[in-house]
Amino acid sequence: MKPTLFVLAAGMGSRYGGLKQIDGLGPNGEAILDYSVYDALRAGFGKIVFVIRKDFEQAFRDVVLKKYEGKVETEICFQSVDKVPDGCTYNPERQKPWGTNHAVLMAKDIIKEPFAVINADDFYGRESFEVLYKFLNEVEHEQNHYAMVGYRVSNTLSENGSVSRGVCVTDENGYLTDVVERTKIEEVGKKVVFTEDGVDTVIDPNTPVSMNMWAFTPEYFDYSLEAFKAFLADKGQELKSEFYIPTLVNQLIKEHKATCKVLDTPAKWFGVTYSEDRPQVVMKINNLIKQGVYPEKLF
């Protein structure tokens, strides 16, 4: 069975000022997620599942899903604050859903095969989907062997200032042992540095960082459900606490329940965080089309 691509598309993109998941950036109105779907299909993925918010379902169907008809099987599921396990309670004043791993949990009854998880508004590059597909094929009949694509930090920097990245710590065999969040990484001169407590530290430009691109097998949903119940018991009354993918992966690693291989990719990441980023992304996509990496019209 071919692996599935699971796309996290439930966020509004408040800093960007609109539904950046379906903002047309390509020459024929293609969104970033269209390029991810295209890359996933040519890598070999067999189905695409999107998690979205119910209130923009029709726009998503009209603008996104319609173009995939007859080309790939698609399904959608919905993330909302009230989708919690039976018997769990939370602060009734909470309005925001519970984070990226809560979004993953929304597909528990849909995805029964190995799957990859990505953000809708990040441009990951063809090579990353190829290494993910290869890994998922290798673990099709296994359990508790996961992976994340580790982007070389120098390939994820912004020309407009510093970025926050989850810097990966690996063992001698390339397995993840920890993810350390660094909130201010940038290129200074010809070196990559992060700043913490006013101190600049130079890091290797090839250091792997997480861009929320993961590979899991289906039992990950069971771990997610139990961990989410514990999360709600501990933090369910808080208004802004979030249930993140790296938090659970770190927990499973430390409890020796699972391993997570860090997969190297030469791909260059880019994305739209602020509206000022949009022109650069449009330019980069056009350059890739000129180089023959993508056709002018994807679908």
| CATH architecture descriptor | Alpha-Beta Complex
Q: What is the number of helical segments per DSSP (H or I, 4+ residues)?
A: 7
- Mean pLDDT metric: 90
Count of domains = 1
Number of strands: 13
Helical fraction: 25-40%
Give the full name of the CATH homologous superfamily.
Spore Coat Polysaccharide Biosynthesis Protein SpsA, Chain A
Sketch the topology as an H/E string, one letter per element.
EHEHEHEEHEEEEEEHHEEH
CATH topology heading:
Spore Coat Polysaccharide Biosynthesis Protein SpsA, Chain A
Using only C-alpha atoms, the radius of gyration works out to 19 Å
How far is the N terminus from the C terminus? 24 Å
Low-confidence stretches: 12-17
Question: Which sheet architecture does the biggest sheet show?
Answer: 11 strands, mixed
CATH class: Alpha Beta
Write up what this structure looks like.
The protein has 299 residues and is α/β, with parallel strands linked by helices. It has one domain: Spore Coat Polysaccharide Biosynthesis Protein SpsA, Chain A. Helices cover 27% and strands 27% of the residues. It has 7 helices and 13 strands. Strands 1, 2, 3, 4, 6, 7, 8, 9, 10, 11 and 12 form an 11-stranded mixed beta sheet that branches. The longest helix has 16 residues, at 220-235. The radius of gyration is 19 Å and the shape is globular. The two termini are 24 Å apart. The model is unreliable at 12-17 (pLDDT under 50).
